[in-house]
Amino acid sequence: MEGLKIKSVSIGILKNISFTLEKGKVGVLLGPNGSGKTTLLNAISGIIPVKSGHIYLGEREITNVPIEERDISYIFQNLALFPHLTVYENIAFPLYIKKEENIDRKVSEILKKIDIFALKDRYPLKLSGGEKQKVAIARALVTNPELLLLDEPFSSLDFEMRKFIRAEFLRVIKEFSLTTLVVTHDPYEAEELGNNMIKIRQGRLVRAGNDVNRIKVRSLKKITKDIALAEFDAFSLIVPFSSGTSDHYCVEFLEEDLYISSLKPPIPTLNTLRGKIISHKEDTERVHVKIDIRGTVIRGNIPWYMWHEIDKDEVYVIIKYRGIKLKGVEDDGVQNTKK
Q1: What's the pTM value of the predicted model, to 2 decimals?
Q2: Whole-number Å distance between alpha carbons of 17 and 258
């Protein structure tokens, strides 16, 4: 089911942008500074009028709908908290604007869900960077929007706090099942935030979605209630297993779900394979590679700064467990990637 659909939108630097984000999923808008990421968010939110193209939210076209009627929350890069209002008043503000009922109950509920109830009487100047992020998220969610937009919301935090707040953010978004579009220029942050990646460069769509590796399972052995051993022609993987039965299975994982290195992991690591790079294609951010693992070819990518340190004849590939999807197929027609 479609959550957000952008169709042939052109505005400012943006040229003919089209993509679809499934309802309840997190999409990541990735690109260098000046590529048009913020312009696209502003167009979706209604801050900038769209004269060419169409924007749909669910079944409704919102291209020319006023900002206040779009049912969208937007977290700006600077968070835009009101310094003269308390945490409680900041979060309640959009509810007052919408003239909603039961404001105290709604604010109290979101304060507890985001775990900031103890901060409700403080002013923004008395909050840490991470606490401000939580307040901004709470204010965005209190109106129960249909779509959440975020413009590099974690860029001002240090590494450890950024990692913590991202995890908290993903927990809350999953709980709300909220369609979300996040802007970042950090590829690693993009990988952590979501598997629906929309890459923009110089105002043009480079890629929507991700390259999917799909490999036929030769046999499947259940280990526990939700873990199984998937065996292939030349190797095996530990994979998530959910209820259901099928005569045939395949596993899927994205390019971004691989970690590739010439160094063997110092300790045994789950789902580590050894292979060699048989081809590569360079772009401005990463090198996309094909890796032969005992006759099965999988696709991955390597950051530019690591590429020249890679021994192409021997690489170690770690496939992230959480990125693997086990799927039943109706017939045996799933083909492994070939050289």
Answers
A1: 0.64
A2: 28
